[in-house]
Amino acid sequence: MSPKITTELLKQLRQVMRSPKYVQEPVQAYIVPSGDAHQSEYIAPCDCRRAFISGFDGSAGTAIVTEQHAAMWTDGRYFLQAAHQMDNNWTLMKMGLKDTPTQEDWLVSVLPEGSKVGVDPFMIPADQWKRMSKALRSAGHDLVPVKENLIDTIWTDCPQRPCKPLITLDLSYTGVSWRDKITALRSKMAERKVLWFVVTALDEVAWLFNLRGSDVEYNPVFFAYAVIGMNTIRLFIDGDRMMDPAVREHLQLDSTLEPEFRVQVMPYGSILSELQDVGAGLSLKEKVWLSDKASYALTEAIPKAYRYLTPYTPICIAKAVKNTSETEGMRRAHIKDAVALCELFNWLEKEVSKGTVTEIIAADKAEEFRSQQKDFVELSFATISSTGPNGAIIHYKPVPETNRTLSVNEIYLLDSGAQYKDGTTDVTRTMHFGTPSAYEKECFTYVLKGHIAVSAAIFPNGTKGHLLDSFARSALWNCGLDYLHGTGHGVGSFLNVHEGPCGISYKTFADEPLEAGMIVSDEPGYYEDGAFGIRIENVVLVIPAETKYNFKNRGSLTFEPLTLVPIQTKMIDVNLLTQKECNWVNDYHQKCREVVGAELERQGRREALQWLLRETEPLLRTQ
Amino acid sequence: MSPKITTELLKQLRQVMRSPKYVQEPVQAYIVPSGDAHQSEYIAPCDCRRAFISGFDGSAGTAIVTEQHAAMWTDGRYFLQAAHQMDNNWTLMKMGLKDTPTQEDWLVSVLPEGSKVGVDPFMIPADQWKRMSKALRSAGHDLVPVKENLIDTIWTDCPQRPCKPLITLDLSYTGVSWRDKITALRSKMAERKVLWFVVTALDEVAWLFNLRGSDVEYNPVFFAYAVIGMNTIRLFIDGDRMMDPAVREHLQLDSTLEPEFRVQVMPYGSILSELQDVGAGLSLKEKVWLSDKASYALTEAIPKAYRYLTPYTPICIAKAVKNTSETEGMRRAHIKDAVALCELFNWLEKEVSKGTVTEIIAADKAEEFRSQQKDFVELSFATISSTGPNGAIIHYKPVPETNRTLSVNEIYLLDSGAQYKDGTTDVTRTMHFGTPSAYEKECFTYVLKGHIAVSAAIFPNGTKGHLLDSFARSALWNCGLDYLHGTGHGVGSFLNVHEGPCGISYKTFADEPLEAGMIVSDEPGYYEDGAFGIRIENVVLVIPAETKYNFKNRGSLTFEPLTLVPIQTKMIDVNLLTQKECNWVNDYHQKCREVVGAELERQGRREALQWLLRETEPLLRTQ
């Protein structure tokens, strides 16, 4: 992959940073955050402004351009990718390394006295604005909102904002009607004595109304905001899609409903002025609830005294704890997903040695097998199909320039998943189609030990996920190995494959206490730059555990793997496993045989079934 | 122990809360924090205001008194003790439990509209003031500084502030002269472009000047502040103690030094006005560095624009990383401490069955043996000598009303330590002098497994301590057991037995990355209310580890136990240990034999040596 040449673009951006047409006063620095106006992690092409200006298109990163410099902050998953995609105009700031300055510290070190730092107020979360503004102010600079997005002014061929049809989800998928969700939300609002709730995150809008969309690739969401009052429901959404009879029926738009459940549909672009009206009409002690991750623009629409900000909204927390309909749907989705992967790996085993299978072909084949499954909608993220050194690029996506051919001499890492109407999947398997080296097996086995340590962990109800992160690393640490990413993220139910508010990470920010019904990934890894990558990922459900003493009735939790795909035993150095770990692998494989085997049988996929049976032969320790 | 009757005191306090003699306007609530004007954890009798008003004298707790209520916030270590010591006027707020309100939330729920909440501005750290003030303001209340301490106005027999002689420490103990410490500090100040540094924590003043005192029991510190400029040193300290020739010589007060190393001695009480003068004399871009834990009163003395606040000062961080002289001193101190405990446990083994040894007698005996050791100064904290149900009171201190007699039927827990001129110790051993039950052994063994898991952990350089906390809990968690305290705290070098900025805890507040030379405790436990307490504590030194792959040259760390006291093998269910854990115990005991055995031999303590040899017989797994 060759880097994007950005010299001309940066020149143009620096011009508009000084142009009275766009800025009241010149700005000496301009921040281009990663997200969209909803602070989404995955975004539509029209929102890929940071990729447009820099070339770096990973899912996380912030660009800052000054008169003299252009710098990009991103995390360990993307160090290699960002270095490949950006030209020499850009400095890579490796977040998480000791000597990397924060954005604020860097700005203070490079800016002339009394500088103005501009940002689109819709693109920056309120909490981040606050932190950054304070740091800049204390150094004599100003963070200023620039109404017109300066990237958009130079992005002549910017794509249109998508506005695709909606999918309605009935009770068999969601378990709870949207009316009951609104009622539950209003009771949380009453508890906190707030009159209004502003829904800004796209997956929260989708979850609340039991609707799905496809405005953002891989994420079944649609561009919309909602403002919920104690007696009103306003949905800000554009397009013909609201004329679809199924949607009208689902939202009961044409019925005479009780007034408090009547959904008023309003234009997407009117959210700011509507919120300003709400803000202006408030009287003493009336509060408006927003996430502190909502955009600075929307937060400012409500006068400070009337804001009630929390890091996680009640929708975010309710969405994270899956009900029985949702967990049953997730189980079904994962069985179908396993069927597709058994087909894929069986096919790869036969084809790789021919030297004709590239990373892209393998990824396409995986999609093909998945799309044969019932209720398949789309992939849940860009398939990471990587072999040899590409595996060390943690969020690698094969493109023609980098596309390697799979071989019997290199490790192959496949991290992929799909959206089914009944659930979202995300699974990583690392395979060798020839004979792995002793070192590759050693590393793989440490990663597996970490995976098992988390998956089999027992912990008290309400434990925060960050306390489990080092279980995943202990075996690697003992040999002086580590990986520069968290161990797990929350997973949505036919929603975003990354969702808050829980996770398993040494970082402690997305970290609401774990409770039964939450779903997270368990995905330790090890990456040897220039050589290979290893990752073993299951999606796991938090379930009650049985323990001898049950934490004085506080309750015990553990995980149940939802992902049921064999872990390649050829890669395991069985003598590095304890007997307990060995039993875990054998029990897991037994379950794959029973559950996925039955489904392969039902679908008449005999060859894949034979592959599954071969791959799930019990391990035996020899020492 | 019977609770303190506080009805009359609370009545008096509520009177002064309304009295124009002490408050400009009546305050509807008054906060009594735990610390002194230096935000110390352990305090002098004259600063025990919270204990005076409530009866609860644990080392952590905040009292809030309103017209109608009196409430006490404390953590899991003190739930039982606080409940015992306080009368019915008080509500115990159990911090860390899910349903316990924060102080702010509670105040908002009980106060009438537009209330004033008073606090002594010297007693509240600036960061806490800020948080609390903001929360109260957003609910329509005000946090107000009350100059006169309201507890002092009703505390008629309040003891005098101590002003004891100082101890000077030479290079053989400290490794670095105070002048070199000042020079290093000034270079940190220059890096951050600050002109002044205010030293407010008592242990930081003591460390910086290589002086020790005894103004606060167990903590070899003295009441003082310091203000360091680029060319000036001001030490705010009272008393004749500055006339001591040894101190004058040590600080070179009577020599003609280079001006930048001349120590100006000023009255302790003049710090506020001096700081206000410093603040008034600053010009643009001149900054004053303070800890954000410094008192609100001192922080406010510097105008906001001139403050440079950090959670940890460079002194705090430099102090935590011990140099070779300090670690060698700590090793010596721990060997002497082990000698004293071998003597004690040998004596207890003979005496307990006679039924004449009480908790207080055992604690006194421990002190007696310690005081026989070279360079002994005092204990490092109040000895926790507890048997049977008293062991479950985590920070128990025996008093005549609770004093139990040790017996062959109950578990005995001794958590004790001393200050030696060469180091500070803190060790907990849990013993049974008869035959422990299977359940007691089971619990003890899980605690031991947790202790070993931390002590033997290998982790990359720069790992934060909170990531190691769950290693200590994993074995307990597997059976549904846990403990409600952190796993370890920083330990000073002939300084406070609890010091920042590192530790091992599920709480993430005192958590600077671990590096070689830091010293922390490793002390998991298990407590069965009304029955027994178990804790196994060593002080451990962070040292480089040898690993196969060394984290790509980032460096590997592990711990070396400084404490060398046998762990009672009678309490271990050896079949619950892995072979590795069993080897750890045997290797540890072998080291105790070699190192402490040699010292017992040298000191001619033959009987204690025999005890050591018996107690360190290797374990054998039978399964």
TrEMBL record, chains A, B:
It is found in: Cytoplasm. Residues 557-619 form the Peptidase M24 C-terminal domain. It catalyses: Release of any N-terminal amino acid, including proline, that is linked to proline, even from a dipeptide or tripeptide. Residues 328-542 form the Peptidase M24 domain. Its cofactor is Mn(2+). It is an enzyme of class 3 (hydrolase). Keywords: Acetylation, Aminopeptidase, Cytoplasm, Hydrolase, Manganese, Metal-binding, Metalloprotease, Protease. Residues 49-150 form the Creatinase N-terminal domain. Homodimer. This is Xaa-Pro aminopeptidase 1. It comes from Calypte anna (Anna's hummingbird). The lineage of its organism: Eukaryota, Metazoa, Chordata, Craniata, Vertebrata.
